[in-house]
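Dear colleague,

Thank you for sharing your sequence with our group. We've completed the structure prediction you requested, and as agreed, I am returning the results in plain text so they can be pasted directly into your records. Please verify that the sequence below matches your submission; if there's any discrepancy, let me know and we will rerun it promptly.
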Amino acid sequence: MQYSRTTLACSIYLVLSTVHAESIQNEVQAHRSVSLIPIVVQADKTDEVGTTTYSKEQLENTPNAQKTMTDFLKINPNVQFSNTVMEGGKQGEISGAEISINGALAYENKLLLNNVSLNNLINPASGNQDYNTTDLSGSSATTTVNTHLICELEVLDSNVSAEYGEFTGGVVKAKTCAPKTQVGKIHGQMSYDYTSSDWTNFSHVTEGELEEYDDDNKQYQKDFVKQGLSASLYGRVTDRVGISLGLAKRWSDIDLKSDLLTVENANQKRENDNVNLNVYADLSDQHKLRVGLQFQNDQKDLEQANNLNSGKQVNSKNAALDVELVSQFQKAKITQSLVYQQQKMLNESDSDALVSWKSSPDKDWSSTNTAVEGGYGTRSQQLDVLEYKIKSEFTPFHFENLEHKVTVGAGYGNYTADWQRPDSVYSYFLPSGVGLAGTSSCLNAQGDVDPYCDLSYNDGKGQFHIQRDVFGAGKIDVSQDRAHLFLEDRMNWNNLLKANIGLRADYDSLNGQTNLAPRSSFIYQPFKDSRLAFTAGWNRYYANNLFTYKLLDGVNQLNSREKRSSVKDDWTFVSASTNNVQRSELDTPYTNETVFAVNGRIGLFDAQLKYVNRDNKDQIRKKRISFTPITDEYDNYGMSEANIYTFSIANHHPIEFLSTQNRFQLGLDYSDITRNFTDYDNNSYNSLTYQQYILYQGDIIDESLRPAENFARPWSARLSWDIQHNYLPLKISHLFCYRSNYDAMVSSTIPFANRPIAPNGDAIKTAYNATRIDGSFTWDMRTTYDIALAKENKLILGLTINNLTNQDNKYTQSNSNYLYSESGRQFIADITFKF
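Please find the predicted structure tokens below.
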């Protein structure tokens, strides 16, 4: 009831306040002579409920140390970040943050650069699998896009048009823009930024964590230098042809100490490369063509701190050709796009054998009794995409007093994914049994020296390997065809009532299903303009069908175990791998969305109060259905629900104060999220031991009602304040964020004698207890100073300070009550030359 009173009060306040809007707006217009902050405006475009558009200037001014799309979105109240987004020990990383939109998991969002998908459709929930013989590391995005190379960022979090599909979270779309300069004039900019561990404070939580941090191991990046370079050129070659070129490179050198006695360092490196080339051609007054080429590459150069000769390189690449033709006819505007895309992930080790030894005079690099050398071989995965889309936006027409704007569209895509291990990889067990009984020779039956034999062990008694796992070479292919149709009608009755009714149909050849997703939203404007509007929406969104469910079906069948009894014996087959991952007949996950919002203009401010409910069905999770052999299976028994309340307010014109122009934006959000799984790849769910009921904080509840552990801080507040001086070329941007305290879930097994009885008669075995993690506050600031050099040329000096007040903020990882610390104060300097 309390929330209902708050909603009603805010609605009444909006209604009463808007009666003064016209007079206040007239007063604002009387002061047009004031020098305002330049912004990018499209006269025919207004943000609707569920849509937020960020301009180039906002992208440049907002504190964003990583220069990535997702990190920028910390200003959006409908976007939640992982608990570990600011982890202090990983500040040497340069990849983008994982985000949740309206309670969805990170891989349930759709990420676009123009018409090209940036989503990882193969293994987006794999996490860090760099040191693995089968899996590859994976996150929701295949690669990282540098915000220096885009001119607009659009976020669709609710009431999403039927034009978009294959998501159950939200849509994040980055865009490049056509140059609008004079013919023959080339414009652009070059930028460089720098930060390091010397410019970063680490506020330790415990002496134990600080000790680990000082050890410089792989968990804590104490010494790093992070830098970035970017350049962009754009201009019109002729009246009808324009070109834009963007180049960006970011890299981080991470110094780590080796655990080995014979090697001093195990240094690592991170690199990210971006190339965007777009050619814009006005073929005629009716037809406009854009041809785009883009390439992104994320690369890691790694050394394992406790393994000898363990060097490896991990790459994630995305290359695409994006062709778009826009044709304006008398009755319709038709947009066609053709995309050819290749995504490739490669994990390449220096060695195809991982060998464990007992330490000896010849195997002397370890400070422990075990010495390990070698690597994990090479494995890759690739996705090839050919996709065509067509959309027709018909000229608005009237029927009676109702205006209709109809849009229809269709698309087809062919997708081929593969997982490959080009050469067999071997993992040698620590010598034991007869392998430690001694050997007088390391010559095999062919008279060659066996590399898996060591005569120096145990005063010359010797050791050799008798058992190994073989990860066989192989390739697994999966092909998929997708097609979609959509129809949408935007109706307007005298600007008093508006409605958007749409229907989208998606076909997926992997499961042979055709899914229908209705979309609808209704807007009531009592004053027939944007001063006050009430919005309601009911929508359904269907997810993408990830390739991982099918690719993993046969991977483990390539694995086997071999043994031998002496150095002279050949390796003989013992058994095939009994581990397997299979899938049941999977339906496409979907979510039903309900939206209610009220937005209006209160004097100089635009305000919005919004409620979004997401009821997620048929979500995919992994379960263990057998221990002998070990068999995991994907099914559709995952479920979750999210209730998201947000309030945002921002001034639509700058406020003058003490010779400065000021813009404010406040965002508040409250989230109530429940989920009965972590992600599709988490195998903590075991159907053999599964119980419907659990003990949570001493109460018996259904397992599906357990609060989500990640992306689920109950509430947060975000305030941005942008300042531009009237008489100085100085800009200052502040971002204040408060994230509420939250409960970290820690599970335990209840002693047999103390197990309570559930409503279904079962004895409850598992208890979840919440560990309260304190709220966190950060104040990030960015300031720039322009130095005019010549006509149309200027130098911009920039400084970003994250966590300005050096707050000691804490977080915890999944199913753990151990406290880790976020980054302390961090400085990032940058310099830009614009011409």
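Summary note from our side: Residues 2-18 form the longest helix (17 residues).

Kind regards,
the structure core
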